[in-house]
Write a structure and sequence with these properties.
Elements (H helix, E strand, L loop, with lengths): L1 H20 L19 E2 L20 E7 L4 H14 L6 E7 L4 H10 L5 E5 L3 H4 L21 H4 L7 E4 L3 E3 L4 H4 L8 E6 L10 H4 L15 E2 L3 E4 L1 H7 L1 H14 L8 H8 L4 E3 L27 E3 L6 H7 L6 H4 L5 E2 L1 H6 L1
Parallel strand pairs: 2-3, 2-5, 3-4, 7-10
Antiparallel strand pairs: 1-12, 5-9, 6-11, 7-8, 7-9
Helix pairs in contact: 9-10
């Protein structure tokens, strides 16, 4: 105490000088830095190891999964990764590739602390690449540049990666993802569940169907709706076929003519609908987020399920927090690793 009493005037003087000379620099005298309120904390997930039947250290057995990384959806991303690892026979073979529009070290540190053994890489996505190409859609969330990053997978991923599974952040996988990875692409560039019973014309405006040249777009194809939140992409064929440029051309035309109302989905449909490898519907039980306009709850479709997808307006973590849940949200809850910042500070 005597020593502190002798030194305290000097410390106070030093603190005042720092404030005057460096007003934007904080002084840490044994204080604990509060965590960012924008990025939540998560419990550490258990380690998942390969079974005896799995081979390790062989790149040919790697399964590459690409997802976007965004502070607003990080809770969903963590749940999705957890579900993938938990249901994988060979979890150590999963290689994750996260596309991020912002350099946020705290995002990356959350992944490291939650999944200490996760094999992942992050890739910066330059939002300016699409900012001038995006047209306003029915929901502001669909207009975020990061939603368009999937178009540039072939440019962002290393050239030695020839196939990747792209997944949205609002889903959980309840089956071994290796089953989807092993699909026979049959020389197609994309594999995904197709929904041919959907009214395909509703995804586009009269400006497309009434134009004699544009309406020929699907000639020779049987176009069906598919959801771009779950896709197996042959990135090697995507590169060689110049599909990024093909999608961008439709986005540029959309800026001149209002051809559709949804964000990044319609240009994918214009380029690829009717020319993809169809996989079982069990791999995308989509629409669980509810009606895009009213947010109404959706029921599960009959049949087996391998992937649950909360596409639509409502996200399960938001509804769980507000205690206004849909029944299907309780299927997502077991994968939620969220830990509030308050409980973190109390530990």
């Amino acid at each position: 105490m005597a020593l502190w009493g002798a030194l305290s005037p000097h410390l106070l003087l030093l603190g005042l000088m720092c404030i005057l000379l460096y007003p934007n620099v904080g002084i840490r005298l044994g204080s604990v830095r509060r965590p960012s309120p924008d990025i939540p904390f998560f419990r550490e997930a258990p380690a998942f190891r390969n079974g005896d039947q799995c081979s390790s250290g062989n790149n040919t057995d790697d399964i590459h999964v690409a997802m976007t990384l965004d502070a607003n959806y990080i809770r969903g991303t963590m749940a999705a990764v957890f579900s993938l690892l938990q249901h994988s026979t060979c979890p150590e073979n999963l290689k994750f590739h996260f596309l991020s529009a912002h350099v946020a070290p705290e995002l990356f540190s959350r992944i490291n602390s939650t999944f200490p053994y996760l094999d992942f890489k992050t890739y910066p996505f330059d939002s300016n690449r699409v900012r001038g190409k995006i047209s306003r859609s029915i929901r502001r969330a669909l207009d975020q540049p990061i939603n368009y990053a999937r178009i540039y997978l072939a440019d962002l991923l290393p050239s030695d990666i020839r196939r990747v599974i792209y997944l949205d952040s609002d889903l959980v996988v309840v089956d071994d993802i290796a089953k989807l990875w092993g699909v026979d692409m049959e020389d197609k560039v994309v594999a995904a569940p197709e929904y041919c019973q959907a009214n395909f014309t509703q995804y586009f405006t009269d400006a497309l169907w009434s134009d004699p040249d544009l309406s020929k777009t699907f000639r020779g194809r049987n176009p069906c709706y598919f959801n771009t939140g779950v896709m197996v992409v042959d990135v090697d064929k995507w590169r060689k076929g110049g599909y990024t440029q093909k999608v961008e051309e439709w986005m540029a035309l959309q800026k001149r003519k209002r051809l559709y109302h949804l964000g990044s989905l319609p240009p994918f449909l214009l380029v690829l609908a009717g020319n993809i490898k169809a996989v079982d519907h069990r791999w995308n039980q989509h629409g669980l987020g509810g009606d895009n306009f009213e947010g109404k709850c959706r029921r599960l479709h009959p049949g087996p399920i391998s992937l649950l997808h909360w596409s639509g307006k409502g996200k399960p973590w938001l509804r769980l927090d507000s205690r206004r849940t849909c029944t299907v949200d309780h299927l997502w809850a077991p994968y939620d690793l969220y830990q509030s910042s308050r409980s973190f500070l109390e530990e």
